[in-house]
Amino acid sequence: MTKRLAGIVAAFLFGAFCNGLHAEEVRSAIFAGGCFWCVESDFDRIPGVVKTISGYTGGTLPEPTYEQVSAGGTGHFEAVQITYDPARVSYAEFVNVSLLYFPDLQNCGQLDLSTSQGAL
Fold first, then answer.
1. How many angstroms separate the CA atoms of 12 and 91, rounded?
2. Helices (H) and strands (E) in the chain, counts
3. What is the pTM of this model?
4. What is the pLDDT of residues 5-60, one digit of tens each?
5. DSSP code of residue 33
6. I want to staple 75 with a disulfide (CB 3.0 to 4.6 A). Which of 37, 49, 59, 109 is the partner?
7. Could you give the 3-state DSSP secondary structure of residue 80?
8. What's the pLDDT tens digit per position in 35-45?
């Protein structure tokens, strides 16, 4: 599977986490694509993003610490929850940003799911 296709599939799988609220309300989405602070910064710059929260997805521990995840073995991925106004920005725009900026999805390397900073 190509890196781009893998990224698209992963992005749409995370789309399943979006809330089905009315257009005048906020929605949320979760993306994992490398260092969560870098990913959070990319999404914070998009008009219509209300807030972002860094955290973890997947894994075996209910509330892992940064040290536990960084040490490896927990199965977690660094992720960002995005709260956004769908009247100002679409979920598709987040997918586009992830395909353009997430380091594991760029042409310079393979999709790496072996670390906590891999893209999902």
1. 9
2. 4, 3
3. 0.66
4. 444 445 544 454 444 444 468 999 998 877 777 778 889 999 999 999 988 888 89
5. B
6. 59
7. strand
8. 777 778 889 99
Q: Which residues are catalytic?
A: 35
Task: Please give the C-alpha separations between residue 107 and each of 44, 98, 104, 111, 112, in angstroms, as whole numbers.
Answer: 24, 13, 8, 10, 12
Here the tokens at position 65 are 């610490």
SS3 content of the chain, % helix, strand, coil (to 5): 35, 20, 45
Decide yes or no: CATH 3.40.50.80 for domain 3-105: no
User: What are the start-end ranges of the E strands in the chain?
Assistant: 27-31, 49-58, 76-84
CA distance 41 to 28: 16
- Please report the pLDDT score of residue 72 as a whole number: 84
Q: Is the pLDDT of residue 63 over 80?
A: yes
Neighbours of 8 (CB within 10 A): 16
